[in-house]
Design goal:
heterodimer, A: 297 residues, alpha+beta, 7 helices, 24% strand, globular, B: eight-stranded mixed sheet, two-stranded antiparallel sheet, 9 helices, extended, Radial spoke head protein (chain B), cilium (chain B), Radial_spoke (chain B), cytoplasm (chain B), cell projection (chain B)
């Protein structure tokens, strides 16, 4: 969601019954402006809000198009108190399966411990794990130039779970209308200035929308590597259909404002106003994946 | 000479010289900042649009989005927004009176504080007004929106006063106006179509119990079949009504003390006489709120069914007690703080106390908004601010579950028993019917 267009684009989010209150909008705008002054991005977008039991998380995403081959670099930021955005920690692939089993709500406290490794309150950590309080054994190489230090095991905090969820949603759901972006001769991604929007008929067909991520399917990977990829607009993956029916495309009563909702991540929606250059996506939900979807259809 | 060379490179309609002319003219006209990056794009666009540099006056750069709205949609929208006209255009007929309908526009403002955005709230409000007039429904309110796979449902709750004959109902179904079928619900896919509000049918206890075992995402079509295991006997409209009733019965809450139990009949409640809504500061914790509606019993009704034929040797009152002990009633008006992990309460907005206009400085005015969200039925929101209490559901219509949902396996189809070996009928010669003897 473009930052300067948040109040207008919230109209689309209203279709699934979500919005930002007046207080949230004002604080969010200030925090986003602060963030964009400290770090330089080609574009800063508001990604969405994840509701927790005590507080909510607000996520922003910074995109860097220039000097990145084929796909812009995405950086995520979060804030729980709307005062200052902080970087989302990098993903730790060790905990991937465990995170997918978490089904309880987020609490809104980033420092909350979800998986306890180091042990608390005087519990002795297991003997085979290095005690985090003692200085770590230093392994020296033969030539004494590199010193390898084993990092102490860290607890898995809620903010790490947040990083998983945000990256998962972004990977599985982020979408764009076909034609909204194009490649330059140096294969960098840019927004297409001559994009006029999909017309009324095209906007209600899901085939005219594509993922906003580096292409994964083999034929799209080939397409984007070719030299004439400049002249094609559909070089990203099409929206997957596994499970069938996970995407729901609906319009409002004027048939003009299209939202594409994902039923596996209820709360995610991509939107487009037919005939204009207004498009985007956002997530307003509780951050829990609906894994039972296959049984619900 | 260069010009002729370029003109030799031809295509069907144009040659390279002309094409370069066209492209450069367009670039000069548009004057983009990043013309270098867009150069290939311009070439491509000029080829597909057929821009000709001689006709440059006819093209303009003003970015105008062409707004086209379908004629019929335009008419329907205007009809909805204008004053209600029950007759035709030539003979306008005003609506005489409508039942109670809370002002959705004012309430939307409260819901915005809760982070709930009601899309097209004015259209919904007008559509509800129209519903109230045409179906003579009283105590109407916007119940909420249930999202579906292809279409969404807008749901209205009220009491239908027009007489509808339901015919003979099976004994376990609570008749219209009682039990779980007390309130009527209307569902609508398309707000612009005023004929679209369809009243949801009466439901049976069996349907309630089946809906407790399945997890289904609605399609948006009231008549579609619901294929699940255990099999839900009914169409999507029955399941929709069942979920709506379950949600309403378990999540409507009111400030503590607004109702009291009736003496002698602890399952009935009456409004507290001389009750004053507490101020903002007395409603800030979960303890200050209580359930309003009765829970649905395990049998799927609100009141136990006493069969007309009692087993022998047992007196009616004793039998009734036995049934009630097996499926006990829950206490009415329980505080919601007893429900573990089921509610989330937040205070938002401006919570300063202001002195009111009148001289009574004891009753301060507080514009803070108290939001109570249900964690069991995600999407259910209750808001309270300045003596206005309102409730809404915006969700997919199923409960939050912590465990993965595994539908029950259908029972194994037993294989047929092998046929017994056939033997021919013993026909003794003596049994052969005697031929007619001449």
């Amino acid at each position: 969601m473009e930052i300067y267009r948040i109040p207008e684009d919230l109209r689309f989010v209203n279709q699934i019954g979500q919005t930002l209150s007046a207080e949230e909008k004002i604080k969010l705008e200030i925090a986003l402006i602060k963030l964009s002054s400290t770090q330089t991005f080609d574009q800063l977008l508001f990604w969405g809000r994840i509701e927790g039991t005590v507080a909510n998380y607000y996520i922003a995403i910074g995109l860097n198009f220039k000097n990145n081959f084929e796909f812009p670099h995405k950086t995520f930021f979060y804030t729980a108190n709307l005062k200052e955005f902080q970087n989302l920690p990098p993903l730790n692939p060790e905990y991937k399966e465990q995170v997918e089993t978490f089904r309880q709500l987020f609490s809104g406290q980033p420092e909350k411990i979800l998986i306890n490794i180091t042990g608390e309150d005087g519990d002795q950590p297991p003997a085979d794990q290095p005690n985090p309080d003692e200085p770590q054994p230093v392994v020296k190489n033969d030539d004494d130039s590199d010193v390898e230090i084993k990092p102490p095991p860290k607890n898995f905090l809620e903010v790490d779970r947040l990083a998983y969820v945000v990256n998962a949603i972004e990977f599985e759901c982020a979408l764009l209308p076909v034609g909204a972006v194009r490649l330059t001769p140096t294969h960098e991604l840019r927004y297409n200035d001559s994009f006029e929007g999909l017309n009324l008929q095209e906007a209600s067909k899901i085939i005219n929308y594509q993922h906003f991520r580096a292409p994964q399917s083999p034929n799209k990977k080939e397409l984007i590597a070719q030299d004439d990829a400049l002249f094609h607009y559909d070089f990203f993956d099409q929206l997957d259909d596994h499970p069938v029916g996970q995407w729901s495309l609906q319009t409002d009563s004027s048939k003009y404002q299209v939202t594409i909702r994902n039923l596996q991540w209820p709360g995610f929606l991509g939107y487009h106003r037919a005939g204009t250059r207004i498009f985007g996506y956002a997530y307003f939900g509780d951050g829990i994946k609906n894994v039972d979807l296959a049984f619900q259809l | 000479m260069l010009k002729e060379k370029l003109q030799e490179v031809k295509d069907q309609n144009t040659n390279l010289y002309e094409h370069l002319n066209n492209v450069l003219t367009k670039i000069l006209l548009d004057n983009p900042k990043n013309a270098f990056e867009l150069f290939e794009d311009y070439s491509f666009q000029v080829k597909s649009n057929g821009f000709k540099f001689e006709k440059y006056n006819e093209f303009d750069n003003a970015e105008r989005s062409k707004i086209n709205m379908d004629q019929s949609i335009q008419q329907k929208t205007l009809k909805l927004i204008n004053k209600i006209n029950l007759g035709t255009d030539e003979e306008p007929q005003e609506a005489t009176q409508t039942g109670y309908l809370p002002n959705l526009i004012e309430e939307s403002y409260l819901y915005e504080w809760a982070g709930i955005g009601i899309d097209e709230n004015y259209k919904i409000f007008k559509a509800l007004t129209l519903l109230s007039v045409t179906k003579q429904a009283s105590k109407l309110r916007f119940w909420g929106k249930i999202m579906g796979r292809q279409k969404d449902y807008y749901i209205a709750e009220g009491i239908a006063t027009s007489q509808v004959e339901d015919g003979e109902l099976p004994p376990e179904v609570e008749p219209r106006g009682t039990g779980i079928n007390t309130k009527s619900y209307w569902a609508c896919n398309d707000l612009l179509n005023d004929k679209d509000w369809i009243e949801l049918p009466l439901i049976t206890p069996q349907q309630i119990n089946t809906s407790r075992l399945i997890k289904y995402m609605f399609t948006g079509n009231l008549e579609s079949d619901v294929i699940t295991n255990p099999y839900f006997f009914g169409k999507e409209k029955h399941l929709l009504k069942a979920q709506i009733v379950r949600i309403t019965q378990s999540t409507v809450i009111i400030p503590k003390g607004q109702y009291i139990l009736r003496e002698g009949e602890p399952r009935e409640i009456d409004p507290t006489p001389e009750y004053k809504l507490p101020g903002f500061h007395d409603l800030k914790t979960l303890n200050d709120w209580m359930h309003f509606n009765q829970n649905i019993l395990n049998c799927g009704r609100l009141v136990h069914l006493i069969p007309s034929e009692l087993p022998e040797g047992i007196e009616p009152e004793v039998y009734q007690k036995q049934i009630e002990n097996a499926d006990p009633f829950e206490n009415r008006l329980k505080p919601i703080s007893n429900d573990k992990n089921a509610w989330k309460i937040r205070i938002v907005g401006d919570t300063t106390d202001y002195n009111p206009l009148s001289k009574d400085t004891n009753n301060k005015v507080n514009n803070g908004v108290i939001i109570i969200k249900s964690l069991v039925w995600p999407g259910l929101v209750t808001v309270y601010s300045n003596k206005v209490l309102s409730q809404l559901y915006y969700g997919y219509g199923y409960k939050a579950t912590n465990n993965h949902f595994y539908p029950k396996q259908p029972q194994q189809v037993q294989s047929e028993q092998p046929d017994l070996p056939e033997q021919s009928e013993p026909n003794f010669p003596a049994e052969i019917p005697q031929q007619q003897q001449d």
